[in-house]
Every structure is written in C-alpha cells, then in structure tokens.
Amino acid sequence: MIGAEAIVKCLEKENTEVIFGYSGVAIDPFWNKILDTDIKTVLIRTEQNAAHCASGYARISGKVGVCAVTSGPGATNLITGIATAYADSIPLICITGQVNSDMIGSDVFQEADITGAVESFVKYSYLIRNVDDIPKIFKEAFYIASTGRKGPVLIDIPFDVQNAELSGKFSYPETISMRSYKPTVKGNIVQIKKVIKEVEKAKRPIICVGGGVHLSGATQELVRFAELNDVPVVSTMMGIGVMSSDHPLYFGMVGNNGKAYANRAMNESDLLLMVGARVADRAVNRPDLITENKVMVHIDVDPAEIGKNVGPTIPLVGDIKHIFTDFLAQDNHPDDHQDWVKTLRGYKEEMKTIREPQAKGYVCPETFIRALSKVMKDDAIYVADVGQNQIWSCAYHIVKSGRFLTSGGMGTMGYSIPAAIGGKMADRSKQVVAVIGDGAFQMSMMELATMRQYDVPIKIVVMKNGYLGMVREHQHNAYNDHYSMVELKGDPDLSLIAAAYGMKYFKVDGASDLDASLWDFLSDDDSGIMEVYVDPMALTR
Amino acid sequence: MKRIYSVLVENRAGVLSKVAGLFSRRNFNIDSLVVGETADKAVSCMTIVSTGDERTIEQIEKQLNKKIDVIKVKTFKESMSINRELMLIKVKYNKENRRDIMENCTIMNAKIVDMSKNMMIIQICDTSDRIEVFIEMLKSVSIVEIARTGTVALTKCKEL
Fold this sequence. Notes:
The complex is a heterodimer.
Chain A: H1 3-13, E1 18-21, H2 28-34, E2 40-43, H3 47-61, E3 65-69, H4 73-87, E4 92-98, H5 114-117, E5 124-127, H6 134-146, E6 152-158, H7 159-163, H8 189-201, E7 205-209, H9 211-216, H10 219-229, E8 233-235, E9 250-253, H11 260-268, E10 271-275, H12 287-290, E11 295-300, E12 314-317, H13 320-329, H14 338-350, H15 365-375, E13 381-384, H16 388-396, E14 403-405, H17 416-426, E15 432-437, H18 438-444, H19 448-453, E16 459-464, H20 469-478, H21 494-500, E17 504-508, H22 514-522, E18 528-533
Parallel strand pairs in A: 1-2, 1-3, 3-4, 4-6, 5-6, 7-8, 7-10, 8-9, 10-11, 11-12, 13-14, 13-15, 15-16, 16-18, 17-18
Helix pairs in contact in A: 1-2, 1-6, 3-4, 3-17, 10-13, 15-16, 15-22
Chain B: E1 2-10, H1 15-25, E2 32-37, E3 43-51, H2 54-66, E4 70-76, E5 81-92, H3 95-108, E6 111-115, E7 119-126, H4 128-137, E8 142-148, E9 152-155
Antiparallel strand pairs in B: 1-3, 1-4, 2-3, 5-7, 5-8, 5-9, 6-7
C-alpha cells in the first residue's frame, strides 16, 4: 500500500464523507486514490474557498471538515481560509501536497513552507517525513481538531511520501493518548456548585452566549437552563441562534454593532455568565468595566481565554455541554426573575431604533431582512457575509429553529457563498440562504460554477449599493466622506451573471412588491440570485 | 516583574521556532531563551525568562500550556530557583592591566580558558546579576566580544 492509499484509508476510518479541494501535481497521488472510495469530492474554483466550504460543512454537520489542495500557491491560497476557521474555532483537516522530501528548502517549483506560514493560524501542523507515520498522524490530527477548543490542523505531505510503500500492513490506532494535550472536558464540581449558588442569589442574572455553545452542541442544555432558572440571554455575533430570536428570554446581540438594550442588560446585571465567548473587542468594548458591580462567571473549554481579556470572579473550564448537563443535575432553587425580565422588555421597547425614511428607489435593509426571515423556512440556514449586510443580518434576521453562520473573528469577505455550499452539502434537506454585499460577491462568485457542477442549490441575496459599505461608513464618520478605495464601479450586470450560470435572477428595489418577490424567489429549491438595491448612503447606526 | 518559565517540550523539529513565535505573536517579551536535552531524549527543556505585569505573566503560562508540543510548564520567580548563565568574554590585555584582570577573575570565580600574547577569553558561570557585575568590573578593559547563553534554572530543593 502506498502513502496516498493509507491517507485515504485514514479518512474512511474517520468517517469522512466529503472533501473540498483543488488539484495540482503535488497532491495528485492522493486524488487518484480517492477514486477507490465512496468519499465525495468537490472541486471548488479557488483554494481559499475549499477551507470555507469545509468550515460551513463542519458547522452544520458537527463533524470535522476536510479540504485538500496542492503545494505552493495552492497551499498559500488556503491560508486565509485556515485563519478564518482558526478565529472561530472550526474543526478542519487541511491537507496540502508538498514537493519531494529531498527538495524541500531548495525553492523548487511550487514549493512553499506552508507549515511555517500557517503556524499562527492552526492548532497544530504536521510535515510527514515517514510514510509509516501516516495512520498515527491522522488519528492525532482528527483528535486535535475535534476536541478541546476546536480548530484547524494542517497536514503537509511530500509527493514522494504519498508514493512510498508502507513497510507493513495498514493499521489505524484504536485509541489515542497525547501526553502534551489533555483537554478538560468535565467542569470542576466545586466551581459548578459555586456558580449555581450565585444564580440562586442573583437578582438580575444574565447569560451571554458565544460560538462555543454551538461548537459544543449544547444549545438545548443551555436554553433549558435559562428557562428553568428564568435567566435572560444575550449573545455575541457567533452566539446568534443558540436561542431562537423570538424566545421570550432572548434579548439580542451585544457589542458595538449590537442592540443598545442588549448592552444595557449586560451592564445592569448583577451576575453575568459568559458562556463559550472570548470577550473580544466587538462584543465588549471596555472589558475592564464589565466586572464592575457584578459577579462574572466565565465558562469556556479553553483555559487561556479565561482571564485573557477580562478577569472573571468565577472561572469554570470544561466542555459546555458537559457543564450545563451538570448544572441541570444540581438541586437548585432559583427565584424567578420576572421583574428583571420585565425591565429588560421595557428597555427593548423604548430603545427600538427608529427607521430612517427610505431614499426613493431603494429598499430599507431592515424591512428587507425581516421580510426575508418571514418567508424563509423555520429551520433554514442563513449564511451572512461580512460588512454592513452582516450587521443588518445580525440585527434583523429572526432565527427560529435554523442556524446563523458568519465569519465572526476574522471577518473574511466572500465567506458566505462557499460556507453555504458546505452547509448545504452537510444537510441537503435544509433551505440555505446566503446574504452578501456586492463587493464580497465578486470575491467568491466563481463558486457559482461549483454549485452548478455538484447540484448544490443556494439562494443568494446580493445587497447592492455600489460601495464597500462598512468602510464607506467608516470614511463617512472618520474622514468626512473623503472616499478612498470604496467605490465599486464597473460591476457586472448580475442578471447576466445569473444567466451565465443557469440561475434564476430577481431584482428588488423601492418600487417592488417585496413580499411577492420574496415568495417567488424562495418558492422552489433551485439556485437563485436576488439583487436588492439598498441606499448607498445607508448607515448601520 | 521578571518571571522564569521552565518548559518541557517534545523534542521535534520546529518546536523552538513555535515557542519563540508564540512569544512574538502575542507581544510577550523574551529576556532570554535556552533549550537543551533532558535525561529523556524525546523531551527537551526550554528555560525562558520574561518580564511583564501580573496578567501577562499568567497569559504566558496559559498560552504555553495550549501549545500541543508543550508537555509541562513550570513557572517561578528568580528568588525561588537556582539560576545560572554562562558567559565567554574576549578581552585585550597588556602588561599593565593583566594583574588586575586576573584578580577580578579570582574575586568573581571566573576562569581564563584561552590566551594569546595580547588577548584572553574569560569564562564565568553565575547568576545573570553577578555576570553584569563582572562586565562592569571589566569596563576599563578593551572588550573584543561577548557571548552569553541566557539563564537556565531549577527550582530550589525544598527543606525536608
């Protein structure tokens, strides 16, 4: 058996069902051996998107996403995708082909020191020197990617190693034990009891959920805990969808792009449970102020996040699902907090943003996204891109029993279309809608071909304003409308692009019947592009 | 505050680079970094001296522990350990100052390990502070080159 076949066998042992990637000579032995399996392969149109597709796939399936590309430029193109996954802790295995082992370091054709280059964006990386190490390395790699704080692992495989013969029979390790990596799963029982006591004592408790709750598969446990203890919930951008947007205990997204009443709720609480969130600068502007006047509990699987940006009163390390299962098993008698909840409902009412009168010819982003939510299926997957459209999506999309995906930590434009493709491939029964700006659309529109090739129908909404809106807004505020590098002129006619890829096209502007257009757009299961004309001068706040 | 980290790592290619990279990426300061084998050939020991405030010191330990090649992290203050650094210093000498130089060596327990008609190499192994003192003592002498290793440290034996 040669190395390439061993790699494929490892992927089968790990129940890999689909791999996203691109070809090149350095990875060719691997792609050749894949033909002998039932693993689906998806040829994307630029390598960065292989990682984004694998990311969307991982987030919806709960499995480790897998992508594979060639050496040199193939590998370096993957870096942004890897960094995006790292920032949001998405479990990925990224396989890169490499030049022959004895040529490494001599700058040969399509050679790149990819393990060196991605060091700050991966949980770990391997450069396979010995073909017999393949089973152990893959077992370790999948284990590292999918446990503790999840994240991408890169495996670089030289061409000659892919073609080398294993010295013995292929044998995949049954168990794994790494002396240098032992993630904490169960929370410390003393800390758990401490937290329960605080919840009992608190008059104005609040839970802030982050992406970690999704990654742990703990949404049910968390919602049940909040309901049983009558604790209101807010979320970071990555925590959207843990609780359905119309749940009576949910009070919106926090942060400088979030709801004013969500921030007020967090500020006025006397007990804050930060769950699976890393307290980064978008969610919490002034981490030094957050612990004034309150007890703060920080629950996370990564001990390094606890105390990194804000010092908690009570740290609790462990897997969120395990911890909340333990919480639910404790015998506690909390008060109800209906006075507090009523106060928060009052804030929500009085702090509702006033809709600006719409400039003629354009659609109001809030009106559009709320209308879109109503027409979308309850369990649909909404994939937001990056920019003003993302902020409007966070503010106005109503998540019921579906999912909300976006690139939070890295804010990578163009993420939504490939992530939507990956998400759809993870669960074809779900309606998948990607919402993207006209700038980012041009960064990943090449994947419309991937959608067509593999029959992956996605509904794409392009919010068109002819600008890189978020930066234009910044230049409006900081540079008095002296625009630089934000105007999109020369954009293609999207109706022709849609036709070129065999997709239906819908246009919505101020004169359209919005609801009728949306019903048309979402009435079938085929791919479609809806172009929504938004006021170029619209602001997110 | 100064802090010493004694880090056991897997003896694999690139580990030194990964740990050094971690410090630079996270904006942690490295005063000195030494790495060498342990009794177990598969394990190396890195001794890193760093300076920072309370929160930084804690983060350094946590981020080191996160690194998959790091097996164990011990951290302590200078006062809790036996610390040593080796320095080789090459100086020019002449008839007039040779005596003084040799006296300074005796005082500070330094050895002359190489000599020519007008140059010598002195070796001293001591705490970093005393090495600084020795360099001060040689201020009036013409120093040609200095090579220092950085600190290695072991926690003091506890009293039984």
